[in-house]
Amino acid sequence: GHVVSAQQSDAAGNTSLPGATAFTSGALPPAVIAPADGVVLTAAPAAITGTGHPGAEVTVTLNGQPIGQTTVNEPPADTEWLAATAPGLVSWSVPVPDLAEGSYTTVATERFGGATVGTTTSTFSVVAAPVTTQVEPAADDDGRAGMTGLLVALGLGGVAVLVVLLRRRRARQAR
Q1: Per-residue pLDDT of the chain (175 residues; tens, 9 = 90+)
Q2: Which residue of 14, 22, 86, 96 is 20 to 30 Å from 46, comparing CA positions?
Q3: Distance, CA of 175 to CA of 169 (rounded, Å)
Q4: Sequence-distant (≥ 6) Cβ neighbours of residue 68 within 8 angstroms
Q5: Residue 53 has what DSSP assignment?
């Protein structure tokens, strides 16, 4: 850890009591930027991406299985280095294998200078894309449209969301 001390004096020669605070420093753990934690996707991601300490090694697992290791990019020479929360300046990316529908847990572990800096966990889900089917109206015996609409919508995960059937009433003929 570290300790910072400070004491202030003014032009009249008055001096404050000294103050001190202790702190520890170190690199931040890696950040997983995409897919974002908790997101539901209708297509599998092509890569897990994030930010970290320039030059650090990041190992990524998906549901406990290693999928890749990479080195965090160095920031461009003409930019001021920002903390690991600055997306795009100090980034990493690991390709993702083909994924089926389901829930996934990503763990990104960063190592720098031979030591583990930190670990970040995030989750995401892959579900089937919503499908909507529109069916044209069916005709009555006399050729008029009897059913005015049918809509079947399959939502995320293939769950039927809505079915609407509207039937036009026939006018009764006087006898």
Answers
A1: 567 888 888 899 888 888 888 765 556 677 788 898 999 888 888 889 888 888 889 999 999 999 999 988 766 555 444 444 444 445 888 999 888 889 999 999 998 888 888 899 999 999 877 666 555 555 555 555 555 555 555 555 455 555 555 555 555 666 6
A2: 86
A3: 18
A4: 59, 60, 94, 95
A5: S
Report the sign of the C-alpha dihedral through residues 41, 44, 48, 49, in that order.
negative
Question: DSSP strand E in the chain: where?
Answer: 2-6, 19-23, 31-34, 39-41, 47-51, 57-62, 65-71, 91-95, 102-112, 115-126, 131-135, 147-154, 160-167
Extract the tokens encoding 158. 């293939």
- From CA 1, how far away is CA 40, in angstroms rounded? 41
What is the β-pairing status of strands 102-112 and 57-62? antiparallel
DSSP 8-class letter at 82? -
HEC string of 9-50? ECCCCCECCCEEEEECCCCCCCEEEECCCCEEECCCCCEEEE
Q: Rounded to whole angstroms, how far apart are CA atoms 32 and 40?
A: 15
Q: The whole model's pTM is what?
A: 0.57
